[in-house]
């Protein structure tokens, strides 16, 4: 039972957001970026270089397979949210290519614009600012 607990503590779940939604990838702190990116490619159905993964939503802090750094050295922790952006010409491998007729392959996917409210909310800190409720008096005044 002790070995199961140790294995559980070494595992971490990293969330990866793509245009198709968020998926959870199980990894370890010692796992290299290259190994992690292979798991991401498999989970999202991409071939080798069909996507890029970034630490930040604004496409900064790219995680590259060429670096042999561990997730721990990249400061990627349990529960972190990473951002996947497909390459302009690439898409998920098997399903997309099989379902698109040969004559339509040159068109690509349309650019999706994020709603204005989503852009606004992503820049906010998430706190609700309000004054103290007068009904919630401290115990000293009673």
TrEMBL record:
One term under GO cellular component: nucleus
Ranges for domain Nuclear pore localisation protein Npl4 ubiquitin-like: 11-86
Gene3D superfamilies associated with the record: Phosphatidylinositol 3-kinase Catalytic Subunit, Chain A, domain 1
SUPFAM superfamilies per the UniProt record, alphabetical: Ubiquitin-like
Top-level taxon of origin: Eukaryota
One GO term of the biological process aspect: ubiquitin-dependent protein catabolic process
One Gene Ontology term of the molecular function aspect: ubiquitin binding
PANTHER family: NUCLEAR PROTEIN LOCALIZATION 4, NUCLEAR PROTEIN LOCALIZATION PROTEIN 4 HOMOLOG
Protein name per UniProt: NPL4 homolog, ubiquitin recognition factor
Gene source species: Aotus nancymaae (Ma's night monkey)
Designated gene of the protein: NPLOC4
């Amino acid at each position: 039972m002790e070995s199961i607990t140790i294995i559980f503590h070494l595992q971490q779940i990293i969330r990866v957001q793509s245009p198709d939604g968020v998926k959870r990838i199980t990894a370890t702190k010692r796992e290299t970026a290259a190994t992690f990116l292979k798991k991401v490619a498999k989970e999202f159905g991409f071939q080798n270089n069909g996507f890029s993964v970034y630490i930040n939503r604004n496409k900064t802090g790219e995680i590259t397979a060429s670096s042999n750094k561990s997730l721990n050295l990249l400061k990627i922790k349990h529960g972190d949210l990473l951002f996947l952006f497909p390459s302009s010409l690439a898409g998920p491998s098997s399903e997309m290519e099989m379902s698109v007729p040969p004559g339509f392959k040159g068109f690509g996917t349309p650019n999706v614009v994020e709603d204005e409210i989503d852009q606004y909310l992503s820049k906010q800190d998430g706190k609700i600012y309000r004054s103290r409720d007068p009904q919630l008096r401290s115990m000293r005044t009673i």
